[in-house]
User: What shape does this take?
Amino acid sequence: DTGVSQNPRHKITKRGQNVTFRCDPISEHNRLYWYRQTLGQGPEFLTYFQNEAQLEKSRLLSDRFSAERPKGSFSTLEIQRTEQGDSAMYLCASSFASAAGELFFGEGSRLTVL
Amino acid sequence: GQQLNQSPQSMFIQEGEDVSMNCTSSSIFNTWLWYKQDPGEGPVLLIALYKAGELTSNGRLTAQFGITRKDSFLNISASIPSDVGIYFCAGRWGDDKIIFGKGTRLHILP
Assistant: This one.
C-alpha cells in the first residue's frame, strides 16, 4: 500500500500526558499537512511542511503542539500536557507542491483525552 | 480569517435522485476542491477546480468554480447508496493554505 499511513490509529491518554503521532506520506510527495477534525466539523488546518521546512502554523496551534519532518519524509505531531479539548481526529495529508490542494489523506489518528 | 459556508448541512434523498450542494465565502480562492469522507476514514478528493468559471465532471459528479471565485457547487446525478457520506468543499488561497467547510451530510433513504 503506497497511501498515506498514520499511527497509532487510536490513542487514549490521561490529561496531562504527552502523545506523539506519526505520519508516513506518499513517498513522492514533498508537501505534508496536519489537520484536526472534531465531530461534526470539517478538517481544521494545523500546519504544513514542504520537504523538511515547516512553512505555516495555524494560530490555533498552541505552544503545546509541535510538528517535525526531520528528513523531509515522515512527520511527527507531538502534543504535550494533553487537555480534554485536544480530543479529536488528527489527519495527515500529503501532496505534490505543484498540485497544491490535491491532498491525499491518511485514515487519521483518533485521540481521546480522559 | 477565511471561512467557507457549506450548505445544506444535511440532505435526505431517495436513491436515484439528483443532489446539489454549494459552498460560499466572502474571500477569493485560487482553487476549489471537493472531498468525500466515509466514516472512520480520511477525506478523498473528488474534483479539483483551478479557474474561475471552470466546470468539471467526474463520472456522475459535476462541480463548478464560481465566476467571482467566492463560490462553488457540486452536483451528483442519479444518486446510489455508496454516495452516502460527508462532502466537504475546500478552498486554496495564498501560497498554499487550504481550508475546509463544515460538510454536507448525505443520507439516502431506503
Notes: The first strand of chain A starts at residue 5 and ends at 7. Chain A touches chain B at residues 4, 31, 33, 35, 40-45, 48, 55-56, 91, 93, 97, 99-108 (CB under 8 Å).
